[in-house]
Design a protein that fits this description.
The structure is a single chain. The chain is α/β, with parallel strands linked by helices and about 180 residues long. It is built from 5 helices and 9 strands, in the order αββαβαββββαβαβ. β8, α5 and β9 form a beta-alpha-beta unit. α1 packs across α2 and α2 crosses α3. It starts with 5 loop residues before the first helix and ends with a strand. The structure holds 1-O-pyrophosphono-5-O-phosphono-alpha-D-ribofuranose (PRP) and adenine. The site of adenine has 8 residues, from β2. It is an enzyme of class 2 (transferase). One of its GO terms (cellular component) is cytoplasm. It catalyses: AMP + diphosphate = 5-phospho-alpha-D-ribose 1-diphosphate + adenine.
């Protein structure tokens, strides 16, 4: 069996649980304590990067798409490692110019996300990044946006996956998903 990665153990140790936030019955997994140990943020980005490069050693990444808001904490750093563009997938009404939109539901609500058309080009290879996959509604909406824009999604990456909510199954068929830390709920 592969030796556990001490960086992943350290990341997991810093994620904090808040029962009944933002609604009764939701166990909120908070990634912000990672930022009280700045080297852990770099560990997250390096683990994402190394995982991708070991699986797709000869694939050029053109853009890293980050999901509003907590995906923005990691996606620009990851984009810089790939010498790729960072592209924001923002909540509705925040981006100027021509945008494409997609609505969705998530573990505790519903929303709509958008990408600026001019930020990407047909056929670009992209990674989509967020902090957490719960029901998969948010990541699925980002994948649908990427597909509308004819982007080539190589992998979706999250710091955390709540595996008991079956979010991966909600993603479009054939999407490769990677998470660093898993919880059932
Ligand atoms: O898999 P899902 O059920 O869709 O849930 C996951 C999403 O929920 C959270 O974002 P939230 O919408 O709370 O926004 P925030 O990042 O602005 O806090 C989280 O950061 C993911 O984006
Ligand atoms: N349980 C959870 N913790 C943190 N962010 C979330 N987004 C959706 N579900 C979540």
């Amino acid at each position: 069996m592969a030796k556990p990665d001490p960086r992943i153990e350290a990341i997991k140790a810093r994620i904090q649980d808040f029962p009944d936030f933002p609604k009764p019955g939701i166990l909120f997994r908070d990634i912000f304590p990672l930022f009280q140990h700045p080297s852990l943020c770099h560990d997250v980005v390096n683990v994402f990067y190394e995982h991708f490069v070991s699986k797709y050693p000869s694939t050029k990444v053109d853009a890293v798409l980050g999901l509003d808001a907590r995906g923005f904490l990691f996606a620009p750093l990851l984009a810089e490692k790939f010498r790729a563009n960072f592209v924001a997938v923002r909540k509705k009404g925040k981006l100027p110019g021509k945008v494409v939109s997609c609505d969705y539901t998530l573990e505790y609500g519903s929303a709509e996300v958008e990408i600026q058309n001019h930020a990407v080009s047909d056929g670009q290879n992209v990674i989509i990044v967020d902090d957490l996959l719960a029901t998969g509604g948010t990541m699925n909406a980002a994948c649908l946006l990427a597909k509308k824009l004819k982007l080539n999604i190589i992998q979706c990456q999250c710091v955390i996956a709540l595996t008991g909510l079956n979010g991966e199954k909600k993603l479009p068929a054939g999407i490769d998903f990677y998470s660093i830390v898993q919880y059932e709920f």
